[in-house]
Every structure is written in structure tokens, then in C-alpha cells.
């Protein structure tokens, strides 16, 4: 294919981060792909290690 025949197509998703966060939260709520349980004052919280590490230097170093 010659250079003149090639077309460039750019699709932008400015709100994509919201979709990702919503899906990660849905997965957490449904206990899909959670790989750690945090226990605080007897309360159990399922979570994703990758999300915790991305949001916290403490967890990044801990894992």
C-alpha cells in the first residue's frame, strides 16, 4: 500500500477513564478478579492489588 493510499483515523475517548473505573468497581462489587482482602476493625474489604498499588505508594511498596 502506497503512502498516499493510507488513511489515518483517530478515535478519542475523553471519558474513557470513567468507564474503566466503573468497570473495575463493578468487578470488585461482584468479587470478580479481586486478589486481596483488607480487614479494618473487623470489616472485610475486597480489592484489586493493581488498583491499590496504583493509588498508594504504601501498597505499591507492600506488594
From TrEMBL:
InterPro entries: BTB/POZ_dom, SKP1/BTB/POZ_sf, ZnFinger_BTB_dom_contain. One of its GO terms (cellular component) is nucleus. It is found in: Nucleus. Gene3D superfamilies: Potassium Channel Kv1.1, Chain A (3.30.710.10). The keyword Cytoplasm does not apply. GO terms for molecular function: DNA-binding transcription factor activity, RNA polymerase II-specific; RNA polymerase II cis-regulatory region sequence-specific DNA binding; zinc ion binding. PROSITE patterns: BTB (PS50097). Residues 34-63 form the BTB domain. Keywords: DNA-binding, Metal-binding, Nucleus, Repeat, Transcription, Transcription regulation, Zinc, Zinc-finger. The keyword Repeat applies. This is Zinc finger protein 131. It comes from Tyto alba. The lineage of its organism: Eukaryota, Metazoa, Chordata, Craniata, Vertebrata.
